Amino acid sequence: FPQTPAYAMVRSVSWARRCVDAPAPPPTTDPERESSIQEGIRLARAGRYEEAEVHLRGALAGCAGSRSSAESRACLNLGTLYGIVGRCFEALLLYRHGLGIAKERGQLTGAVIYLANIGGIFVQLGLRARLPGVLAQIDELLERMAASERQEAERFALWQRYEVASHERDQEQARLALDRIREAFGADDDPRVRAAVYEIESYELVNEGRLEEAASVLERSLALGDSAPVTRLDLLRQRAELLERLDRRRELEAVGREALGILEEDADAAGLAEQTIRIARALARCFERCGGAPDLTRRAYDLAATAMLRRMHQIDECVGSLPEIGILDAA
Fold this sequence. Notes:
By secondary structure, the chain is mainly alpha-helical. 78% of the residues lie in helices and 0% in strands. It has 17 helices and no strands. The longest helix is centred in the C-terminal third of the chain and has 28 residues, at 294-321.
């Protein structure tokens, strides 16, 4: 049952609120950069990822090399945008760069947020063995905080604690972390955040072999609605994998058709290329294993192949442009 960036979603999907309100990095005193950052946040929350990227990259380019709060905030928000759509390479570069700035400026909560997001990228890349080291760095920062600041920053560390416990097969600690996640975010006013909590609950149920219950939890999550396309796609992919394991072929095909429809609707969106590759390939494998739906299998592989070409162009463009704003050298 492949990992998903669910815990990162809880931070990332509501990043427009959290990145603005987090104690660090604080809103910048640079009005022009701050205006671009806020517009990028607004567009991203509306699912307009490519437009959001233009504004956030513009904000970063305008303050690159300043080691300022504006540069830190631009890195955090642009990196989070890339993390949402699965552009792990770019996100990791930006997070590492921003982490250095946050530490220089003594922004401990900001550093915790960066480390938590770096951990999220490691999970997406399947590098969960690196998470204990990330959590150790987070705990070191938490020890240096005042009690009031530490309580808020600890919220961002909950996801790392769950992932580490899950990776180490410590079911008791994983359940404890999940309970704390549910308490902190389960009643969030953003339905996408609540959906992400459901996603983690379903993953834990799968770990316990309770597949039918996990499928029901995901169904409740999807019923919340009001999800950004990237959020709903991950939930649909996870539900498809469960239905395939439960041999519920007709439901699998229905879920697969919905997911492929969303991917085809955004087929020309370069910003979703990595997401399309990952989800389309996962769906194709589900259809193959269930022994049916050749038309859906073909559609899924066609989408993945086209998205791979877009992703190659993205990475080429990233490597060419990030050195110009001082990111690649500092990462």
